[in-house]
TrEMBL record, chain A:
It holds the Pfam family Sel_put. InterPro entries: Sel_put. The lineage of its organism: Bacteria, Pseudomonadati, Pseudomonadota, Alphaproteobacteria, Hyphomicrobiales. It comes from Methylobacterium radiotolerans. This is DUF466 domain-containing protein. It comes from the Bacteria.
UniProtKB/TrEMBL annotation, chain B:
PANTHER family: INNER MEMBRANE PEPTIDE TRANSPORTER (PTHR30252), PYRUVATE_PROTON SYMPORTER BTST (PTHR30252:SF3). It is a multi-pass membrane protein. Residues 33-591 form the CstA N-terminal domain. Pfam families: CstA. This is Carbon starvation protein A. It is found in: Cell membrane. The chain crosses the membrane at residues 35-52, 93-113, 119-140, 161-183, 189-209, 221-239, 259-277, 284-305, 325-345, 365-385, 465-486, 507-529, 541-566, 573-593, 642-664.
């Protein structure tokens, strides 16, 4: 999600980066963060732990947005 | 030379904006092009962003690109994740933009487009965007804590509890008003009711698909949902014509109210993946898409403003809502100029995802400017339709009667000549039985949007489709807000009740959950029912109450920001939050006072109640009440509304008093007393 890759001048790379930005943006709008970033983070900081599967991650995020005890899914007027 | 290069282009932007504003403000007699309004707004935003937000970030916040943000400090790959600035902007904007900036400006158009436009522009640059930016900054420096926690920490425990309770009451009013907009838009409209009802099975289908068939494929499932939605709109057209199904989907406002209350209760206790989350995808993407589409439509079509710059209703005699320009315009347009609810969002998920402190300027200040632009577009949409149609749709039924002839006569008498045939033809064009007294803002906005979009795509033949598309778009995200809001309200209520009886805090057990949900639905349901059965049309009574409460929450948030500025010992810059706080307090306290005590029964709740109880004592039934029962109900509702206004006034006064005390204490202290998290510098990566 945090794009750390050096900016490329290649048109196709740029298009790909733009697409990723749009898709990430659209997913985060509904509370779904980037799975790849999550896996990378777990592998880097907790190499002994197995990361959640993509399906578990999806459900975890869904519950974090609207689930029990959480008000962060609250939308503005 | 350096200064010229740096500021020269901005001076040109400023000059262009000034010229556009001059055109908008001085054009009299003939209609102007809506593009002038758009250009003026965009220039104001650019200048405000370039200079004022930079001033705030350099002097008040002193944002530090090297300082570690909560996303880095607590990075867990889940809730705290350093996120690309543009991606996070989208997330933040999608969370703050809703029905508010679309409805408020439509209602405010009864005074002409100029007063509303000036307030939206001045309000957002000096108040709304400042609030969002400051609260995002404050929360980010405190590990992304919520508004309630921030108030408790910086102002004290008692103000914290007051603010929590106030937020809950404000949310109740918000949900009631939002639900009422849906009811008003769908009443007696089989086409609209069918399409909105169809969203429930569509969402459930999507929910099952995203849970069991292709988990996590949001794009895919949203496209399926979107196609089904478009089919539902087309199907609604067939239903509308059908001799048996048409009447089967025709409901009165009261019937829809009960359905919505039942729906709200069931939806709030269903598992989130089944209904809420999938509908959230649809409503979010449709919302963003429609906003972009509307912006393109306005630029391509470049429609003319039909509404005069100002109407005679600035004196407070307008039929859409009661009260004079000051203070009521400033509470009618809340979202789009300044909205207290954003303080909840800015202290929600966004601060936990900020990658670099410098990004908050774009996300906090810029995000609110974007929402303000949505409000400007709504104002344009309401102003490009014939003013006669505007007042036909937004005046109370008691004034207009029920036939095109009576409505045309009444609106012409108001000073906006219109023929009965035009009213009947417009209703036919948009595929509705009647457009008379379709209050609530949504139908008006839908007619405006249909007018603009059909000029670009499809022409008159597509107008009914675009009208129902616009209604669906609004109803969809309002229902999502009602659903998510009921859930959030339930958790807030369980928190509050937990202060009295700890068993209530258990959000996972059934008993307390059902009780809290029922209380929450009951609370907004009461105001919804009251509004829908209100002979004056509900919006007339409840929208000011909603506006007052929302602006008061903004005053509370800005008070918190002021206290934090004092605690940082930067009080010489405190004017940037003190000015909007004082202005909001003046507006909301005056409006609150008038709503309670005004001797004019059109404005004051108590004088309205007195008038009706005097009539009860004489045994008379006053119109628009139809029976003695109605009379008693009106008096009771008036008193409840008055009590609520008293509560909101008391709430804001209490918070401001606590705020002033905290500022004085911080001013006397000889050092920094704000409670920021450890300013450890981010490790260089």
């Amino acid at each position: 999600m945090s794009s750390t890759a050096a900016p490329s001048l290649n048109f196709r790379d740029r298009l790909r980066a733009f697409n990723k930005c749009v898709c990430d943006g659209a997913r985060l709008m509904v509370g779904q963060g980037d799975y790849g970033t999550y896996v990378a983070h777990i592998q880097k900081t907790h190499p002994d732990q197995a990361p959640m599967t993509e399906r578990e991650f999806f459900r975890n995020r869904e519950n974090a947005r609207f689930g029990v005890g959480n008000t962060s899914g609250f939308r503005c007027c | 030379m350096g200064a010229l290069q740096k500021h020269g282009p901005w001076a040109l932007v400023g000059a262009l904006g000034a010229a556009a504003l001059a055109v908008v403000a001085t054009e009299r007699g003939e209609s102007i092009n809506a593009l002038w309004v758009v250009v003026a707004a965009v220039c104001v935003y650019l200048i405000g962003y370039r200079y004022y937000s930079l001033y705030i970030s350099n002097n008040v916040m002193r944002l530090d690109p090297k300082r570690e943000t909560p996303a880095h400090r607590h990075n867990d790959g889940l809730d705290y994740v350093p996120t690309n600035k543009t991606v996070l902007f989208g997330h933040h904007f999608a969370a703050i933009a809703g029905a508010g900036p679309l409805v408020g400006p439509v209602l405010a158009a009864q005074m002409g487009y100029l007063p509303g436009m000036l307030w939206i522009l001045a309000g957002v640059v000096l108040a709304g965007a400042v609030q969002d930016f400051m609260i995002l900054f404050i929360s980010m420096r405190r590990d992304g804590r919520s508004l309630g926690e921030l108030i408790r920490a910086e102002l004290g425990v008692i103000p914290g509890v007051i603010a929590l309770f106030g937020t809950f009451m404000i949310m109740v009013i918000l949900l009631a008003v939002l639900a009422m907009i849906v009811v008003k838009a769908l009443a007696e409209s089989p086409w609209g009711t069918f399409t909105v009802a169809a969203t429930i099975p569509i969402a459930i289908l999507m929910g099952l698909y995203a849970r069991y068939i292709r988990p996590g494929k949001i794009g895919e499932v949203s496209i399926i949902g979107f196609v089904l939605l478009m089919a539902a709109i087309l199907g609604g057209g067939q239903i509308n014509e059908h001799p048996t199904w048409g009447p089967a989907f025709t409901f009165t406002g009261t019937q829809l109210t009960w359905m919505l209350i039942g729906y709200g209760f069931v939806a709030a206790i269903l598992p989130v993946w089944l209904l809420l989350a999938p509908r959230d995808y649809l409503s979010t993407f449709l919302k963003i898409g429609t906003i972009v589409g509307l912006a393109l439509g306005i630029v391509v079509v470049a429609p003319h403003m039909q509404m005069p710059a100002t109407t005679k209703f600035v004196d407070g005699t307008g039929p859409v809502w009661a009260g004079s320009l000051f203070p009521f315009l400033f509470i009618t347009i809340a979202c789009g100029a300044v909205s207290g609810f954003h303080a909840l969002i800015s202290s929600g998920t966004t601060p936990k995802l900020v990658d670099n402190e410098m990004d908050t300027r774009f996300i906090g200040y810029g995000g609110m400017l974007m929402e303000s632009f949505v409000a400007i577009m709504a104002l344009v949409a309401a102003s490009v339709i014939d003013p006669g149609i505007y007042f036909t749709m937004n005046s109370p039924g008691a004034l207009l009667g029920t036939s095109p002839e009576t409505a045309a006569a009444a609106v012409t008498k108001l000073g906006f000549p219109i023929g009965a045939d035009v009213i009947a033809q417009t209703a036919k064009d948009v595929g509705e039985h009647s457009i008379i007294s379709r209050t609530g803002g949504a139908p008006t906005l839908a007619v405006g949007m249909a007018h603009i979009i059909s000029s670009a795509i499809g022409g008159k033949a597509m107008m009914a489709f675009w009208y129902h598309f616009a209604i669906l778009f609004e109803a969809l995200f309002i229902l999502t807000a009602v659903d998510a809001g009921t859930r959030a309200g339930r958790f807030m209520l369980q928190d509050l009740l937990g202060l009295i009886s700890p068993t209530f805090k258990d959000t996972s057990s059934w008993g307390p959950s059902v009780v809290a949900t029922a209380l929450c639905v009951g609370a907004w349901g009461y105001f919804l029912y009251q509004g829908v059965t209100d002979p004056l049309g509900g919006i007339y009574t409840l929208w000011p109450l909603f506006g007052i409460s929302n602006q008061m929450l903004a005053a509370v948030a800005l008070t918190l920001a002021t206290v934090v500025i004092f605690k940082m010992k930067r009080e010489r810059y405190a004017f940037i939050t003190i000015i909007p706080t004082v202005w909001l307090c003046i507006c909301t306290l005056t409006a609150g006072w008038q709503k309670i005590f005004s001797p004019d029964p059109k404005i004051g709740f108590l004088s309205h109640a007195d008038r009706f109880s005097a009539a009860i004592a004489e045994g008379k039934v006053l119109g628009p009440a139809k029976s003695m029962d109605d009379m008693h109900k009106i008096v009771f509702n008036d008193r409840i509304d008055a009590a609520l206004a008293v509560f909101f006034v008391g709430l804001v006064i209490a918070i401001v008093v606590f705020g002033v005390m905290a500022c004085v204490k911080a001013y006397r202290a000889d050092r920094w007393t704000a409670l920021e998290a450890d300013p450890k510098l981010a490790p260089a990566e």
